[in-house]
Design a protein that fits this description.
The protein has 462 residues and is mainly beta. It contains 2 helices and 45 strands. Helix content is 8%, strand content 39%.
Length: 462
Amino acid sequence: PSPTGYDETIVGSNNGSITGVDSTMEYKLSTDSSWTSITGTSVTGLAPSTYNVRVAASNVNSNFYGSSTNVTINAASAICSIGSVEYGSLDAALAAVDNNETILLLENITLSDDLVINNGKEFTLNANNKTIDFDYDFLLNIYSGDVTFNNYSFDNLFLVEVYNNNGSGTSLKATFNGNLELTEGCLYTFGDGTEVFVNGDLTSQGDGVQAYAFSKVTINGNINTHGDGVLCYGGASVIVTGDISSDSRGIYAHGTQYIPDSEDIRSNVLVEGNVVAYDSGVECWAGAFVEVKGSVTSEEATGVYCNGTAEQNPTMLTEVFVRVDVYGGSGDYGAGAVAYGNGQITIDGSLVASFNRILVNGTFRDKKDNTTFKTNYDQYSNYLTMEGFNPSEDVQYLTVVWLRNPSTPKPPASSTSDPVVTTAPKTGDTVNMLTWIILLIASAFVVCTFFVIRRKRESNMQ
């Protein structure tokens, strides 16, 4: 056996312990003269001090004792607290916290391992403007519960993993009330019932968001990344209320990827600002849906790329909506809008590209169709070679780029459906207008009555 001491975890609790012992051994305080027999594989409830541990004398040779080993148990230094109880480590507080309680950080800390939250509790971690240093290599892993982070400063945080593998019907939620800055990793989410909110900007030297398997992510701010801005797979959902700026791809969305044997799964990405990327601005695949309420710009590659899966499931469209303008990159493959399969792209603004402006199923299209499925939009399309469909009706087989006709007004930015014909706007108070009409009719009646009575009087006088 190799005796090992564990420090006090709660200030003043005398909950230190020694492990790596057995019933052949005994221990004592280094300042005591009497020994205490050990009856199990550990000794618990020890006050901070130095202890001696040795093999006890045997019944065969009562004069023989093993060599003594010194074990030191340190007093807990208050690192954080829950109410009035102070803890010597964040791990100890995480193990003790209960629902609706708050862990308050009292000192800056440097982690020596990943920070794992798996207690299934709903609680708040208030970092109290202290710093948690992840020492470059360590992760923040959240596997169960509902945790809110306030007043935090994370240094050298590699990756945040919010992973729900607890079964159907379980929920997992993490809220970051502030900016979130990562080194080489990303914000990684997985599993149905997983929800993550970042109420601030997300910055990473790697990717920004990687959302998988029905998880939901909301970034109430901007995303700035060296890698891809948003990666969204297998029924996941990502909302970004600000802009995306990426040194790689802006958005990559895939409906069925990483979900085996799936045919009817849609991934959804909504960006309320602009997307600016060095590589592709938007790539949308296999049943995904992407809406960008601002502009999409690629510096070197394709502005918008959309590839559908008509052969697998023609009723599930793959769609991209851009509510303002699209700019293809200046590189050799700087196309504006590219559609394959039954991929469908709608652009409410202008489309500019230095290479091919519009590619549909690999064919350069410089002339719009004679007809269009969308009112007020110019259509650039090509049907897939599929049996059993009517080209004039089965729009789900259409590979298409729709550009809003410059002579027509743009729809509201919040609209994600085909534009509809609306009646002329009301320009006055309809109640007052009705009143005037009634008064006019009444006045006409009075005038008519006056002339009738006057004619009768003139006739009687004659």
